[in-house]
Amino acid sequence: MSVRVVALGGGHGLHASLSALRQVASDVTAVVTVADNGGSSGRLRGEFGVLPPGDLRMALAALCGDDEWGQTWAQVLQHRFDGDGEMRGHVVGNLLIVGLWELMGDHVRALDWVGRLLGAQGRVLPMAVTPMDITAEVRGLDPADPARLTSVRGQVEVATTDGEIVSVSLDPADPEPCAEALEALASADWVVLGPGSWFTSVIPHLMVPRLRRALEATQARLVVVLNLEPQAGETMGYGPEDHLGALFEHAPDLKVHTVLADSGTVRDRDLLHQVVASAGAELLVCDVAASGDSARHDADLLADAFRRIMLGA
């Protein structure tokens, strides 16, 4: 059975969902958050004025095959330089992607060429082709007035804030979406949103107006994969229902088919079921966490869950 899936997110969360989806679907497209301003990506973004390549690189690595060719290229792509010079901390895949962007002048064409080199089992696209920053309204940063909202700018700064994130937005507010990403959403059978850094990798997709409208209009069925645990800075104290609440607050018209949660993270199943049902969605609770690592999804277990949801297997 041919299944076309679009997965949205960024970083390690998207890497996990893609590693699972390529075991399940015949046609996988990753749509990646591109607002990172830290590390190697931030340095390249600042020097060359390009999109940050890091999350795009991780998505490409996740789609590499399990054969020697695929795994070798995945390791090369993810290799980070050591040493004490200017190259310290840069990642080979980031440099390769930026080099092809400069050579070809086309974000999508260059990423497709990297995918061909790697033998990637799917396609990787940016969510937008306009450089952007994430901004957040944060409560609790002013000791003299804990209720006061403070604006925080930058993905790294938002992800590591000591306050409570109330809302996030993008600057510019209406970045140019990737046309191929809109096309993929229009023709998909399933869309997967999450897991990942909730306010800086997952929700930003809903802040691109034309991308959000495409998500609301698609005939594809949407699966939301919840995180395994709260993230320091972004979602401290959040339970599964709080993650969903933040998602729906930013995109109240989003139509969700299934919410997937790990059995070890659900403390109040009745409450979560109530929140999911109020959104008109179904809830699947099963084991998807990696053994011995409560913060990461197991790709094989996640693939089994996707088969149950998408194929009824």
From TrEMBL:
GO terms for biological process: regulation of cell shape. It comes from the Bacteria. Gene3D superfamilies: CofD-like domains. Keywords: Cytoplasm. Coiled coil: none annotated. It is found in: Cytoplasm. Its main location: cytoplasm. CDD domains: YvcK_like (cd07187). GO terms for molecular function: LPPG:FO 2-phospho-L-lactate transferase activity. GO terms for cellular component: cytoplasm. InterPro entries: CofD, CofD-like_dom_sf, Gluconeogen_factor. Required for morphogenesis under gluconeogenic growth conditions. Belongs to the gluconeogenesis factor family. NCBIfam families: CofD_related (TIGR01826). HAMAP family: Gluconeogen_factor. PANTHER family: GLUCONEOGENESIS FACTOR-RELATED, UNCHARACTERIZED PROTEIN YVCK-RELATED. This is Putative gluconeogenesis factor. It comes from Nocardioides gansuensis. The lineage of its organism: Bacteria, Bacillati, Actinomycetota, Actinomycetes, Propionibacteriales.
